Amino acid sequence: MQEYKGKKLTIRHCEESPENEPTPSWNEALEHIDTHKQNTCYAQMKARRDQLADVGVIRNREHFNDEGKLPNNSKFYAIKLCTKVRAYGWFSKKHKSVFYISHYAYKNQKKLSKLDTDKVISNWRTIEEN
Question: What is the model's pTM?
Answer without folding.
Answer: 0.93
